[in-house]
Design goal:
Blueprint: H1 2-29, E1 61-62, E2 67-70, E3 73-77, E4 81-82, E5 92-94, H2 105-134, H3 140-165, H4 172-194, E6 203-204, H5 206-238, H6 252-277, H7 284-304, H8 311-336, E7 340-341
Parallel strand pairs: 6-7
Antiparallel strand pairs: 1-4, 2-3, 3-5
Helix pairs in contact: 1-2, 1-4, 1-8, 2-3, 3-4, 4-5, 4-8, 5-6, 5-8, 6-7, 7-8
Length: about 350
Protein backbone atom coordinates (compact mmCIF):
# COMPACT_ATOMS: atom_id res chain seq x y z
CA UNK A 1 0.00 0.00 0.00
CA UNK A 2 2.93 2.31 0.66
CA UNK A 3 3.95 2.18 -3.00
CA UNK A 4 0.50 3.53 -3.89
CA UNK A 5 1.04 6.46 -1.57
CA UNK A 6 4.35 7.21 -3.31
CA UNK A 7 2.70 7.02 -6.73
CA UNK A 8 -0.25 9.19 -5.70
CA UNK A 9 2.00 11.79 -4.11
CA UNK A 10 4.01 12.03 -7.34
CA UNK A 11 0.86 12.34 -9.44
CA UNK A 12 -0.43 15.05 -7.12
CA UNK A 13 2.86 16.98 -7.38
CA UNK A 14 2.60 16.95 -11.19
CA UNK A 15 -1.03 18.10 -11.00
CA UNK A 16 -0.12 20.99 -8.70
CA UNK A 17 2.48 22.15 -11.23
CA UNK A 18 -0.18 21.93 -13.96
CA UNK A 19 -2.55 23.99 -11.83
CA UNK A 20 0.19 26.60 -11.35
CA UNK A 21 0.78 26.73 -15.13
CA UNK A 22 -2.98 27.00 -15.80
CA UNK A 23 -3.32 29.77 -13.23
CA UNK A 24 -0.46 31.64 -14.86
CA UNK A 25 -2.06 31.31 -18.31
CA UNK A 26 -5.28 32.68 -16.80
CA UNK A 27 -3.39 35.72 -15.51
CA UNK A 28 -1.38 36.17 -18.69
CA UNK A 29 -4.47 36.06 -20.92
CA UNK A 30 -6.63 38.17 -18.60
CA UNK A 31 -9.11 35.31 -18.21
CA UNK A 32 -9.60 35.56 -14.47
CA UNK A 33 -13.21 36.65 -14.87
CA UNK A 34 -13.92 34.32 -17.79
CA UNK A 35 -16.36 32.59 -15.46
CA UNK A 36 -18.00 35.36 -13.39
CA UNK A 37 -19.53 32.97 -10.84
CA UNK A 38 -18.18 30.04 -8.81
CA UNK A 39 -18.12 27.02 -8.80
CA UNK A 40 -20.23 26.94 -11.96
CA UNK A 41 -19.58 29.07 -15.03
CA UNK A 42 -22.46 31.38 -15.98
CA UNK A 43 -24.60 29.01 -13.97
CA UNK A 44 -23.60 26.01 -16.14
CA UNK A 45 -21.56 22.92 -15.33
CA UNK A 46 -20.21 23.15 -18.88
CA UNK A 47 -19.79 26.81 -19.91
CA UNK A 48 -21.30 28.42 -23.02
CA UNK A 49 -19.32 28.69 -26.21
CA UNK A 50 -21.06 31.68 -27.79
CA UNK A 51 -22.68 34.90 -26.64
CA UNK A 52 -26.17 33.90 -27.84
CA UNK A 53 -26.32 31.22 -25.14
CA UNK A 54 -26.40 33.98 -22.53
CA UNK A 55 -29.34 35.87 -23.99
CA UNK A 56 -32.88 35.67 -22.70
CA UNK A 57 -35.15 33.76 -25.09
CA UNK A 58 -38.91 33.24 -25.10
CA UNK A 59 -40.38 29.78 -24.41
CA UNK A 60 -37.05 28.45 -23.16
CA UNK A 61 -36.27 26.33 -20.12
CA UNK A 62 -33.99 28.07 -17.62
CA UNK A 63 -32.44 26.26 -14.67
CA UNK A 64 -32.10 27.69 -11.17
CA UNK A 65 -29.06 30.02 -10.87
CA UNK A 66 -28.57 30.03 -14.65
CA UNK A 67 -27.06 33.36 -15.71
CA UNK A 68 -27.94 35.65 -18.58
CA UNK A 69 -26.50 39.01 -19.68
CA UNK A 70 -29.12 41.74 -20.02
CA UNK A 71 -28.56 45.50 -20.26
CA UNK A 72 -24.83 44.99 -19.65
CA UNK A 73 -25.50 43.27 -16.31
CA UNK A 74 -25.67 39.69 -15.05
CA UNK A 75 -28.99 38.20 -13.95
CA UNK A 76 -29.62 34.74 -12.53
CA UNK A 77 -32.81 32.67 -12.48
CA UNK A 78 -34.41 32.60 -9.02
CA UNK A 79 -35.89 29.16 -9.73
CA UNK A 80 -36.13 26.77 -12.66
CA UNK A 81 -38.85 27.89 -15.06
CA UNK A 82 -39.94 28.12 -18.70
CA UNK A 83 -39.99 31.65 -20.07
CA UNK A 84 -43.10 33.14 -21.63
CA UNK A 85 -43.28 35.37 -24.68
CA UNK A 86 -41.94 38.39 -22.76
CA UNK A 87 -39.25 38.99 -20.13
CA UNK A 88 -40.57 38.80 -16.57
CA UNK A 89 -38.48 40.57 -13.90
CA UNK A 90 -39.97 38.39 -11.17
CA UNK A 91 -38.12 35.34 -12.50
CA UNK A 92 -34.73 37.00 -12.31
CA UNK A 93 -32.42 38.56 -9.72
CA UNK A 94 -29.48 40.81 -10.46
CA UNK A 95 -26.06 39.31 -9.73
CA UNK A 96 -24.62 41.74 -7.19
CA UNK A 97 -21.28 40.20 -6.13
CA UNK A 98 -19.57 42.25 -8.85
CA UNK A 99 -20.46 44.27 -11.95
CA UNK A 100 -18.39 42.36 -14.51
CA UNK A 101 -20.75 41.34 -17.32
CA UNK A 102 -18.64 40.48 -20.37
CA UNK A 103 -18.39 37.22 -22.28
CA UNK A 104 -15.27 36.13 -24.10
CA UNK A 105 -15.37 32.43 -25.07
CA UNK A 106 -11.57 32.08 -25.05
CA UNK A 107 -11.32 33.60 -21.57
CA UNK A 108 -14.24 31.51 -20.35
CA UNK A 109 -12.73 28.22 -21.45
CA UNK A 110 -9.23 29.07 -20.22
CA UNK A 111 -10.66 29.78 -16.76
CA UNK A 112 -12.88 26.68 -16.97
CA UNK A 113 -9.91 24.41 -17.78
CA UNK A 114 -8.05 25.98 -14.87
CA UNK A 115 -10.94 25.05 -12.58
CA UNK A 116 -11.12 21.54 -14.00
CA UNK A 117 -7.45 20.97 -13.25
CA UNK A 118 -8.02 22.28 -9.74
CA UNK A 119 -10.89 19.85 -9.23
CA UNK A 120 -8.91 16.98 -10.75
CA UNK A 121 -6.04 17.63 -8.33
CA UNK A 122 -8.40 16.88 -5.46
CA UNK A 123 -8.88 13.24 -6.49
CA UNK A 124 -5.35 11.92 -5.76
CA UNK A 125 -5.30 13.97 -2.56
CA UNK A 126 -8.52 12.34 -1.39
CA UNK A 127 -7.05 8.93 -2.21
CA UNK A 128 -3.91 9.81 -0.23
CA UNK A 129 -5.98 10.65 2.84
CA UNK A 130 -8.03 7.46 2.46
CA UNK A 131 -5.01 5.15 2.12
CA UNK A 132 -3.09 6.95 4.87
CA UNK A 133 -5.76 5.93 7.36
CA UNK A 134 -4.76 2.28 6.92
CA UNK A 135 -1.08 3.12 7.48
CA UNK A 136 -1.65 5.34 10.50
CA UNK A 137 0.02 2.91 12.93
CA UNK A 138 3.06 2.59 10.67
CA UNK A 139 3.56 6.36 10.42
CA UNK A 140 1.00 8.93 11.56
CA UNK A 141 2.72 11.61 9.47
CA UNK A 142 1.26 10.15 6.27
CA UNK A 143 -2.27 10.97 7.39
CA UNK A 144 -1.41 14.34 8.92
CA UNK A 145 0.37 15.57 5.77
CA UNK A 146 -2.27 14.16 3.41
CA UNK A 147 -5.04 15.79 5.44
CA UNK A 148 -3.10 19.08 5.53
CA UNK A 149 -2.74 18.95 1.74
CA UNK A 150 -6.45 18.29 1.32
CA UNK A 151 -7.29 21.15 3.68
CA UNK A 152 -5.06 23.52 1.70
CA UNK A 153 -6.70 22.47 -1.55
CA UNK A 154 -10.05 23.33 -0.01
CA UNK A 155 -8.67 26.65 1.18
CA UNK A 156 -7.35 27.40 -2.31
CA UNK A 157 -10.78 26.62 -3.80
CA UNK A 158 -12.44 28.92 -1.26
CA UNK A 159 -9.90 31.66 -1.97
CA UNK A 160 -10.51 31.21 -5.69
CA UNK A 161 -14.20 31.86 -5.06
CA UNK A 162 -13.34 35.07 -3.18
CA UNK A 163 -11.07 36.18 -6.02
CA UNK A 164 -13.91 35.74 -8.54
CA UNK A 165 -16.60 37.23 -6.30
CA UNK A 166 -14.40 40.27 -5.70
CA UNK A 167 -13.46 40.68 -9.38
CA UNK A 168 -9.79 39.83 -8.81
CA UNK A 169 -9.23 41.49 -5.43
CA UNK A 170 -5.67 42.94 -5.27
CA UNK A 171 -3.40 40.89 -3.02
CA UNK A 172 -5.62 37.80 -2.94
CA UNK A 173 -3.97 36.45 -6.08
CA UNK A 174 -0.57 36.59 -4.38
CA UNK A 175 -1.95 34.65 -1.41
CA UNK A 176 -3.45 32.18 -3.90
CA UNK A 177 0.01 31.56 -5.39
CA UNK A 178 1.72 31.19 -2.01
CA UNK A 179 -1.00 28.69 -1.04
CA UNK A 180 -0.19 26.58 -4.10
CA UNK A 181 3.50 26.54 -3.14
CA UNK A 182 2.58 25.49 0.39
CA UNK A 183 0.62 22.53 -1.01
CA UNK A 184 3.66 21.64 -3.09
CA UNK A 185 5.86 21.77 0.03
CA UNK A 186 3.48 19.48 1.95
CA UNK A 187 3.48 16.95 -0.88
CA UNK A 188 7.26 17.01 -1.25
CA UNK A 189 7.65 16.42 2.49
CA UNK A 190 5.21 13.52 2.35
CA UNK A 191 7.06 12.06 -0.63
CA UNK A 192 10.43 12.49 1.10
CA UNK A 193 9.19 10.64 4.20
CA UNK A 194 7.69 7.86 2.10
CA UNK A 195 10.95 7.37 0.20
CA UNK A 196 13.25 7.83 3.18
CA UNK A 197 14.43 4.22 3.35
CA UNK A 198 15.42 4.10 -0.33
CA UNK A 199 17.65 7.19 -0.35
CA UNK A 200 21.35 7.38 0.59
CA UNK A 201 22.65 9.60 3.37
CA UNK A 202 24.01 13.07 2.63
CA UNK A 203 26.30 15.49 4.44
CA UNK A 204 26.01 19.11 5.49
CA UNK A 205 27.65 21.92 7.41
CA UNK A 206 25.77 24.11 9.86
CA UNK A 207 26.15 27.09 7.53
CA UNK A 208 24.93 25.11 4.53
CA UNK A 209 21.86 23.99 6.47
CA UNK A 210 21.07 27.53 7.62
CA UNK A 211 21.53 29.15 4.22
CA UNK A 212 19.50 26.39 2.51
CA UNK A 213 16.58 27.47 4.67
CA UNK A 214 17.22 31.16 3.94
CA UNK A 215 17.29 30.45 0.20
CA UNK A 216 13.75 29.06 0.36
CA UNK A 217 12.44 32.17 2.12
CA UNK A 218 14.28 34.31 -0.44
CA UNK A 219 12.56 32.44 -3.27
CA UNK A 220 9.16 32.86 -1.60
CA UNK A 221 9.75 36.60 -1.24
CA UNK A 222 10.80 36.79 -4.88
CA UNK A 223 7.71 34.89 -6.04
CA UNK A 224 5.53 37.17 -3.91
CA UNK A 225 7.15 40.27 -5.41
CA UNK A 226 6.68 38.79 -8.87
CA UNK A 227 2.95 38.29 -8.36
CA UNK A 228 2.70 41.89 -7.14
CA UNK A 229 4.41 43.01 -10.36
CA UNK A 230 1.84 40.97 -12.26
CA UNK A 231 -0.96 42.77 -10.44
CA UNK A 232 0.59 46.09 -11.47
CA UNK A 233 0.56 44.88 -15.09
CA UNK A 234 -3.11 43.92 -14.71
CA UNK A 235 -3.89 47.42 -13.43
CA UNK A 236 -2.06 49.08 -16.34
CA UNK A 237 -3.90 46.83 -18.77
CA UNK A 238 -7.27 47.72 -17.23
CA UNK A 239 -6.39 51.40 -17.64
CA UNK A 240 -6.10 50.77 -21.36
CA UNK A 241 -2.36 51.42 -21.53
CA UNK A 242 -0.54 49.96 -24.53
CA UNK A 243 1.70 46.95 -23.88
CA UNK A 244 4.84 48.77 -25.01
CA UNK A 245 4.27 51.35 -22.26
CA UNK A 246 3.90 48.92 -19.35
CA UNK A 247 7.58 48.66 -18.43
CA UNK A 248 7.93 52.46 -18.38
CA UNK A 249 5.15 52.70 -15.80
CA UNK A 250 6.24 50.07 -13.28
CA UNK A 251 6.22 50.99 -9.60
CA UNK A 252 8.89 50.45 -6.94
CA UNK A 253 7.95 46.77 -6.44
CA UNK A 254 9.28 45.89 -9.90
CA UNK A 255 12.71 47.41 -9.16
CA UNK A 256 12.87 45.65 -5.80
CA UNK A 257 11.95 42.38 -7.54
CA UNK A 258 14.68 42.90 -10.13
CA UNK A 259 17.37 43.86 -7.61
CA UNK A 260 16.43 41.12 -5.14
CA UNK A 261 17.20 38.55 -7.85
CA UNK A 262 20.92 39.34 -7.37
CA UNK A 263 20.71 38.10 -3.78
CA UNK A 264 18.80 35.00 -4.85
CA UNK A 265 21.37 34.18 -7.54
CA UNK A 266 24.36 34.73 -5.25
CA UNK A 267 22.89 32.67 -2.41
CA UNK A 268 21.97 29.72 -4.61
CA UNK A 269 25.32 29.80 -6.40
CA UNK A 270 27.16 29.59 -3.05
CA UNK A 271 25.04 26.61 -1.99
CA UNK A 272 25.67 24.86 -5.32
CA UNK A 273 29.41 25.49 -4.96
CA UNK A 274 29.47 24.13 -1.39
CA UNK A 275 27.52 21.05 -2.41
CA UNK A 276 29.99 20.39 -5.22
CA UNK A 277 33.23 21.13 -3.36
CA UNK A 278 32.32 19.25 -0.18
CA UNK A 279 30.59 16.42 -2.07
CA UNK A 280 27.52 16.75 0.13
CA UNK A 281 25.40 14.60 -2.16
CA UNK A 282 22.40 16.82 -3.02
CA UNK A 283 21.58 16.19 -6.68
CA UNK A 284 18.91 18.90 -6.56
CA UNK A 285 21.47 21.72 -6.53
CA UNK A 286 22.73 20.90 -10.02
CA UNK A 287 19.21 21.35 -11.39
CA UNK A 288 18.57 24.42 -9.23
CA UNK A 289 21.38 26.31 -10.92
CA UNK A 290 20.05 25.42 -14.39
CA UNK A 291 16.49 26.41 -13.46
CA UNK A 292 17.75 29.66 -11.94
CA UNK A 293 19.63 30.52 -15.15
CA UNK A 294 16.50 29.90 -17.22
CA UNK A 295 14.46 31.92 -14.72
CA UNK A 296 16.79 34.91 -15.08
CA UNK A 297 16.66 34.59 -18.88
CA UNK A 298 12.85 34.58 -18.81
CA UNK A 299 12.91 37.67 -16.57
CA UNK A 300 15.19 39.50 -19.00
CA UNK A 301 12.90 38.61 -21.90
CA UNK A 302 9.90 39.92 -19.94
CA UNK A 303 11.63 43.18 -19.01
CA UNK A 304 13.17 44.02 -22.38
CA UNK A 305 10.63 42.62 -24.86
CA UNK A 306 7.38 44.10 -23.49
CA UNK A 307 6.27 41.08 -21.45
CA UNK A 308 5.62 38.55 -24.27
CA UNK A 309 2.79 36.13 -23.54
CA UNK A 310 4.84 32.91 -23.64
CA UNK A 311 7.40 34.14 -21.09
CA UNK A 312 4.93 34.96 -18.33
CA UNK A 313 3.70 31.44 -17.45
CA UNK A 314 7.23 30.12 -18.10
CA UNK A 315 8.68 32.58 -15.58
CA UNK A 316 6.21 31.53 -12.89
CA UNK A 317 6.62 27.82 -13.63
CA UNK A 318 10.41 28.06 -13.35
CA UNK A 319 10.07 29.90 -10.05
CA UNK A 320 7.78 27.17 -8.75
CA UNK A 321 10.19 24.43 -9.86
CA UNK A 322 13.05 26.32 -8.20
CA UNK A 323 11.11 26.45 -4.93
CA UNK A 324 10.22 22.76 -5.24
CA UNK A 325 13.83 21.68 -5.76
CA UNK A 326 15.08 23.87 -2.92
CA UNK A 327 12.58 22.59 -0.40
CA UNK A 328 13.06 19.00 -1.57
CA UNK A 329 16.82 19.41 -0.94
CA UNK A 330 16.10 20.80 2.53
CA UNK A 331 13.81 17.88 3.40
CA UNK A 332 16.48 15.53 2.06
CA UNK A 333 19.00 17.21 4.36
CA UNK A 334 16.81 16.80 7.43
CA UNK A 335 15.84 13.21 6.65
CA UNK A 336 19.15 11.89 5.31
CA UNK A 337 21.83 14.36 6.38
CA UNK A 338 22.00 13.84 10.12
CA UNK A 339 24.38 10.88 9.93
CA UNK A 340 27.28 12.56 8.15
CA UNK A 341 27.89 16.04 9.55
CA UNK A 342 30.84 17.79 7.95
CA UNK A 343 32.59 20.21 10.36
CA UNK A 344 33.33 23.74 9.22
CA UNK A 345 36.98 24.10 8.34
Amino acid sequence: MKKWLILLSRIEIVLIFLVIIAGSVVRMSGSGMGCPDWPKCFGHLIPPTERAQLDWKPETDFKKKQIIIKDEALYYAREGFTSSSSFNDENWAKYTKHDYALFNPVHTWIEYINRLLGALSGLPMLALVFLSVFLFRENWRYLVLSAAGLFMLGFEAWLGKLVVDGNLIPGSITIHMIGALLILAILLLLNAILERESKPDAGFTAKFKFLSTISIFATLIQVGLGTQVRETVDHLQQMGMARNQWMDNMDLVFYIHRSFSILVIGLNFWLWKQNKNLKLGYWQWNYILVILALEVLAGIILAYFNLPYFAQPLHLLLGSILFGLQIQALFYLHLHGEKRIIPIK
